[in-house]
Amino acid sequence: MANQQYSGGCHCGNLRFTANVDLSKTIACNCSICKKRGLILAFTAMDDFSQTAGTGKAREYLFNKHVIRHQFCPECGVEAFAFGEKPDGSKMAAVNVRCIDDIDLDTVHPTPFDGASK
Question: Mapping DSSP to helix (H, G, I), strand (E, B) and coil, where does residue 79 land?
Answer without folding.
Answer: coil
